[in-house]
Structures are given as C-alpha cells and as structure tokens.
Description:
- Strand 2 and strand 3 (about 25-35) form a beta hairpin.
- Strands 1, 2, 3, 4 and 5 form a five-stranded antiparallel beta sheet that branches.
- The protein is mainly beta.
- The chain has one helix at about 60-65, and strands spanning about 5-10, 15-20, 25-35, 40-45, 50.
- The model has no long low-confidence stretch (mean pLDDT about 95).
- The protein is globular, with a radius of gyration of 12 Å.
Amino acid sequence: TDKEPVLVKVANASVESWKSAQGSEIKAKLVGIEDETTYLFETEDGKTIRATANQLDKESVAKARKAAGLK
C-alpha cells in the first residue's frame, strides 16, 4: 500500500542560494523535505521545485537537512 509521504516542513525559511550537483544555482526557499529524500523549494516567483538529494550538491543537502532539523 502507498503510505503518505512524511513531510518535514521548514518554518520561516528565507530565500537562499542552493546549488545543484551540476553546479547551477537557484534562489529559493526550502519549504520542506519529503520522506527525507525529496527537497521542496519555492522560488521567488512562487514556483515549486522538487529535487532529490542526488540532484543537489552536498553542501546544499547538509544545509537543507539542518534547516529542517534532520541529521
């Protein structure tokens, strides 16, 4: 059975720079982490971007997890 994804919401997130594994940068705020694997960002124009840990550079992943209170 499909279980509901576990979403850890990030309160009071501000717009920051995040880097992809390929090195491109987005300016967005982290709104949450789903199932500890999918990172949900909202861009300044309100678009939602979903990225997996593999699609982000290691520093961005570490920063996102810390913001969400995950280890």
